[in-house]
Amino acid sequence: QVQLVQSGGGLVQSGGSLRLSCAASGLISGIYTMGWYRQAPGKQRELVATITSGSITVYGDSVKGRFTISRDNAKNMVYLHMNSLKPEDTAVYYCNVYFRSLDYWGQGTQVTVSS
Fold first, then answer.
1. pLDDT tens digits, 86-102
2. How far is Cα 24 from Cα 83, in angstroms, rounded to an integer?
3. Residues 99, 104, 108, 111: is their CA dihedral positive or negative?
4. Which of 23, 43, 68, 95 is deepest in the core (most CB within 10 A)?
5. More confident residue, 56 or 29
6. Residue 104 forms beta bridges with which residues?
7. What pLDDT does 99 receive?
8. In 3D, which of 69, 98, 81 has the Cα closest to residue 4?
9. pLDDT reported for residue 72
10. How far, in Å, CA of 24 to CA of 97, rounded?
């Protein structure tokens, strides 16, 4: 059973930084994509960033140049470093693992950016 446990997030002022972490368990091979998505109130869930097991990254247009995704394959961890945060980054952030054609999700973490 794949499980994802998130940590980090919280309240920060505009221009500030936060880091999100996600620990994955139950994965029996290293070949999978990890990522972060977010959902703001009244909006659809959107891609923030993904990273493959070979460290190829994809970013959503709204976070390019401000957010950095990284992973530690030995620890089955994925991180999201968020800089220059804006009020429009306020959302619930979800960790995701795409493994053997299935999506797995973390519990969600609130990130609130005040202006």
1. 999 999 999 999 988 89
2. 24
3. positive
4. 95
5. 56
6. 97
7. 86
8. 98
9. 92
10. 8
Nearest to 49 by CA among 88, 94, 2: 94
CA 114 to chain centre: 20
DSSP per-residue string spanning 57-77: EEE-TTTTTTEEEEEETTTTE
Structure confidence at residue 30 (pLDDT): 66
- Any idea what DSSP says for residue 3? E
- Other Cβ atoms closer than 10 A to 62: 14
- Beta carbons within 8 Å of 2's beta carbon, 6+ residues apart: 24, 25, 26, 27, 97, 99, 102, 104
**Short-list 67, 69, 68, 74, CA closest to 24:** 74
| The pLDDT of residue 32 | 87
pLDDT tens-digit map of 37-93: 999 999 999 999 999 989 999 999 999 999 999 999 889 999 999 999 999 999 999
| C-alpha dist (Å) from residue 71 to 12, 41, 60, 114 | 24, 28, 17, 28
Give the residue from 18, 82, 24 showing the smallest Cα distance to 48.
82
